Amino acid sequence: MNKRAITLTVNDRDYELWVVPSDTLLDVLHDELGLADVRYGCGEGVCGTCTVLLDREPVSGCLILAVQAAGHQVTTMRGLMGPGEALHPLQECFLRRGAAQCGFCTPGMILTALDLVRRSAGQGQARPSRDEIRYALVGNLCRCTGYTKILDAIEEYAGQ
Amino acid sequence: MRLLAAAGDDAKVLAGGQSLMPMLNLRLARPELLIDINLADQRAPSLAGDVLRLPALTRHRVLLEHPLIRQHCPLLADAIRYVGNVRVRNRGTIAGSLAHADPTSEIGCCALATGARVVARGPHGERTVPAGDLFAGYWATTLDPAEIITDVLIPAAGPRQGWSFHEMVRRTSDFAIVAVAVTVDLAERTGDPAAARVALAGVADRVVLAGPQLLNGDPDESAARIADTLDPADDVHASGAYRRRLARVLTARALRQAFARATGAAP
Q1: Nearest to B87 among A43, A59, A135 (CB)
Q2: B108 neighbors B201 (Cβ within 8 angstroms)
Q3: Under a CB-based contact definition with an 8 Å cutoff, are residues B95 and B79 in contact?
Q4: What ipTM was predicted for this assembly?
Q5: Which residues, in sequence order, are bridge partners of residue B193?
Q6: Which helix (H) or strand (E) is B137 found in, with range?
Q7: Sign of the Cα pseudo-torsion (A111, A117, A118, A119, in order)
Q8: How many domains, in total, are found in chain B?
């Protein structure tokens, strides 16, 4: 298949890339740009390990083509970090609460949780309840933690 | 439209991609041509008279949050909570879901219960198809391969309409084992239930609307009569007998709740 040139804006940086039209955004972010915080899990949009923000909204990187993301803002977990790889406050909460074990699901959890907290704040609502956090995370599977510490970490962040 | 007419069966239309993309990733679908329609239409939902017009690319998140939908089709706004996860709802579209024609579809179920119609455009022009005539079997519609849904039209719920949506799943956000969507309209003068529509998902090869003759004023009796007409297949998720039982229990529950909402006895 013929490659075509696209401009992809990832974590506030523009990349000129040659992609095959059938490449998913996940393929390009992980394999071409080396962003190891975007991961292939299921390929069906169920597990959440390829979660990225597309114009600030969580989407599955495996279910969107790279060509469709051209012209949009793509954010991976790495894009949340400050200068000198300073951790985002939500990442700090994850660390403090022991919410990451193997870490495979962590970037997807963080991006999804961040969207929830931002959205609640944006709508002038109180911080999300534990049940609301649980509901928001149904599409992010973790096989290590049993979720309790993840919920603890997000609750702590939402309370800040 | 031109591309689709030329390629016919070899082409697939890509809307939100939340069903088609998994099928591509798993190589269950291998179309020659993928036609991305995401940039083709930027319209928002609108209300004209007493009909809600939802453009094909209306995302699930919009169905969940848009004030017009909350007000005029609360059934759909409520049922969308059961659809997928936050990423699916950010990308998935109403027409994509209907065209995918999954027999466990919450959206298909609501389309039947609200008496929705779809506007389909093809090489020979435009036509309107009632949701009841749209579904043809497992992941199959009656649309021509060169036709595409452009709009979904939903009669706005009147002040005397009650509604209810219930679903049984193994895990939140999973495909429904059985789902039921109900609307009940009260008679203008007497306040008696004048018309009820009961739609079920997960009980056949497509979403189904129960025959109106099965319904009377008694939720339990109506639900039992509807369940008796169903013959769901066994699969790895549930036996047919369990699905039929769920259909009865959930339908009775939904009818009761819809009636209570119509009369103002329930929020």
Answers
A1: A59
A2: yes
A3: no
A4: 0.95
A5: B186
A6: strand B135-137
A7: positive
A8: 2
Question: CA nearest B60: which of B51, B69, B52?
Answer: B69
- How deeply is B204 buried, as exposed, middle or buried, from its count of CB atoms within 10 A (0-12, 13-18, 19+)? middle
B171 contact residues in A (CB cutoff 8 A): 138
Q: Rounded distance, CA B205 to CA A33, Å?
A: 43
- Residue B36 covered by a domain: no
Q: Could you report the per-residue pLDDT of B104-126, keeping only the tens digit for each?
A: 999 999 999 999 999 999 999 99
How does DSSP assign A36-70, residue by residue?
TTS--S-SSSSS-TTEEEETTEEEEGGGSBHHHHT
Q: CA nearest A108: which of A82, A81, A72, A137?
A: A137
How many angstroms separate the CA of residue A112 from the nearest CA in chain B? 8
| Domain termination residue (choose one: B155, B175, B206) | B155
What gap in Å lies between CA A152 and CA A150, rounded to an integer?
A: 5
For B212-262, the pLDDT digits (tens) are 999 988 999 999 999 999 999 999 999 999 999 999 999 999 999 999 999
Question: Does the beta carbon of B84 lie under 8 angstroms from any beta carbon of chain A?
Answer: yes
- B17 and B131 both lie in a single domain: yes
Amino acid at A110: I
